[in-house]
Design brief:
This protein has 9 helices and 10 strands. It is α/β, with parallel strands linked by helices and about 290 residues long. It has a single domain, classed as Aldolase class I (TIM Barrel). It has an 8-stranded parallel β-barrel with strand order 1-2-3-4-7-8-9-10, surrounded by 6 helices. Strands 5-6 form a two-stranded antiparallel sheet.
Length: about 290
Amino acid sequence: MSSPKAVLTCALTGVLTDPAQHHVPVTPEEMAREARRARDAGASIVHVHLRNQEPGLGRLPSWDPGVADAVCGAIRAEVPGLLINLTTGVIGPDLSGPVACLERVKPELAALNAGSLNYLKLRSNNDWAWPPMLFDNPVEKVEAFAEVMRRLSIVPECECFDTGILRSVALYARRGMVPNPPHVSLVMGVESGMPAKAEWLPLLKQEMLPGTHFQVIGIGREEVWKLHRACAEQGGDLRTGLEDTFYLPDGTKATSNGQLIEALARVARDAGREVATPAEARAILGVRAA
């Protein structure tokens, strides 16, 4: 029996990476160009963060539905059929910005941050890399986003930063808050969350409901590639991109999302998995028809 095809997602840009320091796309034209490179290398899905379009402010996020429309419209025009997964991550109880963006562009999928995390990182001198921040996602916030996604026929991708959040997703699914089986992303490598350790995967899989679709979001450098290989071998889908890492398996720095997806496709094939097309990804993930 052949192994199931692997769905590849490219996280194009991230939320706060400064384009003056790292070559990440910001404008609709840049996002569309990188989406094409990712698709040509094997990606079926692009995960989209929105950036401020004012000159010099591209390091900052935006929740302007006009920006969402311009970015997603440019991607759809450049790469028809590619699936869009839109971010919804926001601090605090005001969901109006992300909801307006979801309503404007109606992506096929959207990130559903499934629980709260103290988002922490230390510098080499043990100073905080940024002020300690609570990424707050209480149940009422998760439920509100899930209801919007259900209303708009958007598939929720439940992002899990630690084991308790992963176990919570099973509770959400059993209550009917999210589809059962759910779609889960294991975010591994954030310093205050789950580590990017391949040996964790079998244990994490034990906490998933039967039939759960899962992928790894590996945050880090060369170490994430061992994690991707383990995920591919254990039947998971795969994600990389300039949001998650700047580094290729040999430790050199990537200059485009296409390079990272090319490397990820090789990981899938080395594990005996073929790469799904966008049309196949729609069927695998239960996404609405184009």
